[in-house]
Amino acid sequence: MILIKTAKLASLVGLLLLLGSCNTLYLGYNNLNWLTRWRLDSYLDLTSEQDSWLNVQLAEHIAWHRKEELPQYVDFLREIQINARDGLTREEWKEGLEKVELGWQRILDRLRPDAAKLLADLDSEQVEELRSDFQEENEEIAERLAEPTAEREEKRRERRQESLEEWFGDWSPEQILALEGIWQKSRPEVDETKSRLERREKSQAEFFNFLNQQPNQEQAEQWLIGWQRQLQGDDQQNDWRSRYEARILAIDQILTAPQREHALAKLEEYIVEIEKLIAEN
User: Mean pLDDT, to the nearest integer, of 190-210?
Assistant: First the structure.
């Protein structure tokens, strides 16, 4: 959604943890200030004053995250290793998901005042620049939607399989067939990509209507709080969580012992890299 581009700009480590390799995590985290600035610069041409302020704030946020959050990541991954060794229960999954969401909450709570200040300090030209960049992204999404459904489905299937192989190793033909059944059973009845684009465009329109009112920092922060609450209570988001939970628990049931050990070893690699980052504090 719209403010993931703003409120989460300084929390790219979450993306690194979820999507990257261990080397990407280590190198990415140690260059998080630069990565965040690069991401933001792709949307906004900051003034020299805004640029100097942002550099100071990012350094403080990253130092806080390294000291306060990374140790909790290690504890969390250790807990996953213990729980997943003999299979994952629904209760363990829900408990883990709650901890992840609380972690994001802490990050967003810390970033919110600075995100609000940045929004309040945007001038009309910067707002229009941001609007243009978002519109360009929307057009790219629409282009992908124009691709044949079967082609988009195949790309998704390939990405899923690559991710599963990275975490669990090789899969037997029988397992691959079972995975396809799990996906078909847990997928939405209709392709939600188009409706997500429509919600995205509606959210963006509301966002820019708000920015056009030239809010002060307090108003911007209140808007961010409201957006966050709305996102947490979104029916589609909750439906996605339910389907994702069903998918994860079903996959857990068909894992072999070697595949489970492969995933535990993968988690250990991440733990080692995070501990190296903590030691550099």
Answer: 83
